[in-house]
Amino acid sequence: MAADQGPAPSLRPGVPPGAAPAAPVVTVAGPRVARAEEVLTPEAVAFVVGLHRAFEGRRQELLTRRKSRRAEIAAAGTLDFLPETAAVRAGDWKVAEAPRALQDRRVEITGPTDRKMVINALNSGAKIWLADFEDATSPTWENVVSGQVNLIDAYLGRIDFSTPAGKAYALKPAAELATVVVRPRGWHLDENHLLVDGVPVAGALFDFGLYFFHNAARLLARGAEDPNSGPYFYLPKTESHLEARLWNEVFTHAQAAVGIPHGTIRATVLIETITAAFEMDEILYELRDHAAGLNAGRWDYLFSIVKNFRDAGDHYILPDRNSVGMTSPFMAAYARLLVQTCHKRGAHAIGGMAAFIPSRRDAEVNAVAFEKVKTDKDREAANGFDGSWVAHPDLVPVARASFDAVLGDRPNQKENPGSPEAVTAAQLLDIAGAGGTCTEAGLHNAVQVGIRYIEAWLRGLGAVGIFNMMEDAATAEISRSQIWQWIHNGVVLSDTGEKATAELVRRLVAGELAALRAELGAEAYAGGRWAEAAELFEQVSLAEEFADFLTLPALPLLG
Ligand SMILES: CC(=O)SCCNC(=O)CCNC(=O)[C@H](O)C(C)(C)COP(=O)(O)OP(=O)(O)OC[C@H]1O[C@@H](n2cnc3c(N)ncnc32)[C@H](O)[C@@H]1OP(=O)(O)O
Ligand SMILES: O=CC(=O)O
Ligand SMILES: [Mg+2]
């Protein structure tokens, strides 16, 4: 405002012009969670409120922008690299050097932040533990607050746990523990239990802000670079470099606010949307002082392709989930581009999740899981990735063997430029080129997985084993969005010759509920949330208007 304009008129009746801005009204409205007061201290809440006040406006703008971008994609029926950022792609620049704790990331275990899992993950022998508030967590107030309590206890080396049967859990010596990398929720989810002037804060800023605030205080006490830890993050579901820019602004603000050096925070960005795949360079560039790498989040990536091209015709129809994999040409192109981009920019390239989970009770299931995961990790290591994810502690040695065989004593292979084959937009979008079939068996599986997962999520479980596969929010999104896509494109199922229709899906849902009642028994069935899960599943897979995320209509049903 120009100096001669005088003070702005007061918009608050009775408050003189130029008076200090009103203090925000902050409401914490969740059910009681044990030890919440250790996390939700007045200072930590004020820090999150400060983030909200600084960045909520921009978050909303970017969420609106997602909608217009999707409308553009629907109109064009295709996608390409951005002309306006060609100079960034062509430029000669690198991201900041990784801190010591993030140099060797050959095996990363992922999982939710409940107490037992925290201890098991940290003790697993993995280099990194991705502490997940996203795909693997149902964001009940209990889960998001107690997760923060557990992270503080883990950082202080005082986390322990025992089961009602007396099995005791404790941390191994500090030098043997995984480094913690926290994955906050994506930009789309609100935290409805913390309101500022009646507006919910972003789940992303709640998870990031609380972990950063508590972690940064300890970091300051320990000295500039802790060899085993720091404020390290995974950033999920990013759709554009502008969203990465917002994270960069949040990091810059957060570091300045608590007085730790710019660049202390390190973030690995999941490339798990089709739009982000076209902006890998740009995302690293925006975050270059804070970037630690990119990750190939294959499950949300498939979901994002279906979501964005759901009504773009036959070329984009995703066949049965188990007939597409990382060797499908469009997925191989995505992995290739990720390794090429990361290594050109000095960043780590981290592989994704093979969803097969082992069983300690069934040797055959175990053998299949080990073999499938080994094949997947061998391929990633050979293709230039610096490390990869596993979902279960028993898979840590499997993935480590794959990466040891390629890396040897080197912490990573960032000097490996990856495949010399350039990646084109057409290759990234060649879904039809994957072949694969759409079957009623695939449709049935999608119904089963979708209902079972949503029911677990409503009870506060964000990751579950279903039919020996790891299922989480990302894989459930594939199930329901694929059904929407098949119905709206009139797909004919190759094994029955029948068309995929809403009526067929409703029949399969009813059949699945009856099967579950028989499998569980009437009492256990009645104790679950099956009817709500089925209703929500039908809504997100059959409603004409496609829900951007299934967790959005599901959120109000959580405690
Ligand atoms: C698309 C994506 O975003 S992938 C990343 C997000 N998804 C995830 O992180 C999933 C992580 N994995 C898991 O949550 C689990 O492995 C599940 C739910 C799939 C299966 O868990 P369970 O049914 O408990 O498996 P199982 O009984 O074989 O577990 C054996 C032991 O390993 C532990 N365990 C299993 N997975 C993990 C894990 N990821 N982290 C830590 N501990 C684990 C179990 O707690 C159990 O411990 P216990 O023997 O002390 O009781
Ligand atoms: O977050 C990972 C994914 O595959 O989705
Ligand atoms: Mg994901």
Automatic annotation (TrEMBL):
<comment type="pathway">
    <text>Carbohydrate metabolism; glyoxylate cycle; (S)-malate from isocitrate: step 2/2.</text>
</comment>
<comment type="similarity">
    <text>Belongs to the malate synthase family.</text>
</comment>
<keyword id="KW-0329">Glyoxylate bypass</keyword>
<dbReference type="InterPro" id="IPR019830">
    <property type="entry name" value="Malate_synthase_CS"/>
</dbReference>
<feature type="domain" description="Malate synthase C-terminal">
    <location>
        <begin position="439"/>
        <end position="554"/>
    </location>
</feature>
<dbReference type="InterPro" id="IPR011076">
    <property type="entry name" value="Malate_synth_sf"/>
</dbReference>
<dbReference type="InterPro" id="IPR048356">
    <property type="entry name" value="MS_N"/>
</dbReference>
<dbReference type="InterPro" id="IPR046363">
    <property type="entry name" value="MS_N_TIM-barrel_dom"/>
</dbReference>
<dbReference type="InterPro" id="IPR001465">
    <property type="entry name" value="Malate_synthase_TIM"/>
</dbReference>
<dbReference type="InterPro" id="IPR006252">
    <property type="entry name" value="Malate_synthA"/>
</dbReference>
<dbReference type="Pfam" id="PF01274">
    <property type="entry name" value="MS_TIM-barrel"/>
</dbReference>
<dbReference type="InterPro" id="IPR048355">
    <property type="entry name" value="MS_C"/>
</dbReference>
<dbReference type="InterPro" id="IPR044856">
    <property type="entry name" value="Malate_synth_C_sf"/>
</dbReference>
<dbReference type="Pfam" id="PF20656">
    <property type="entry name" value="MS_N"/>
</dbReference>
<feature type="domain" description="Malate synthase TIM barrel">
    <location>
        <begin position="179"/>
        <end position="431"/>
    </location>
</feature>
<keyword id="KW-0808">Transferase</keyword>
<dbReference type="Pfam" id="PF20659">
    <property type="entry name" value="MS_C"/>
</dbReference>
<feature type="domain" description="Malate synthase N-terminal">
    <location>
        <begin position="26"/>
        <end position="86"/>
    </location>
</feature>
<protein>
    <recommendedName>
        <fullName>Malate synthase</fullName>
        <ecNumber>2.3.3.9</ecNumber>
    </recommendedName>
</protein>
<keyword id="KW-0816">Tricarboxylic acid cycle</keyword>
